[in-house]
Amino acid sequence: MPQSAYVKLVPASEKQVISIDELKDLLLYYRSITTKTGEQLSWGYADAAFPYTIEEKEEAEGKWFYLKGLDQRKNKYILVGIGTESEADADQEKQKQYIQFTLTDISTHGDKGKANEFCKFIASKLKGELHLFNGRVMYYYPKK
């Protein structure tokens, strides 16, 4: 059964709206900083830290893409998408955007661990609210 984790963009977040291309750029930025870490350690850390390729299908229509594992024995797939949810406030309805990481039926434990890492990285960069696969919530935005 598929599992999902969400990074919700709240009013205190860096951005209220994010595009799929900006999300891809964040993941590519993650790969570049882990590559630099690997160079400093003289180790191919980038392959271990981001063992995926970013692939998009035509039917995604700019709303989702998937991460395909380079070594299919360890990592299979993680679906990544963007959506909105309605939140009813006192007299008006607000739209909140979220980033969703979904594990498929064939995803491995390695995929779940990496998805948790990516969620935490993106939530910290965007100062969002992270709803993990196990239902727990982590707050990365400044509290007033």
From TrEMBL:
One Pfam entry name: DUF1885
Residues in coiled coil: none
Gene3D superfamilies linked to this entry: Rbstp2229 like protein, Rbstp2229 protein
UniProt xrefs under SUPFAM superfamilies: Rbstp2229 protein (SSF111171)
Protein name (database record): DUF1885 family protein
Organism: Fictibacillus halophilus
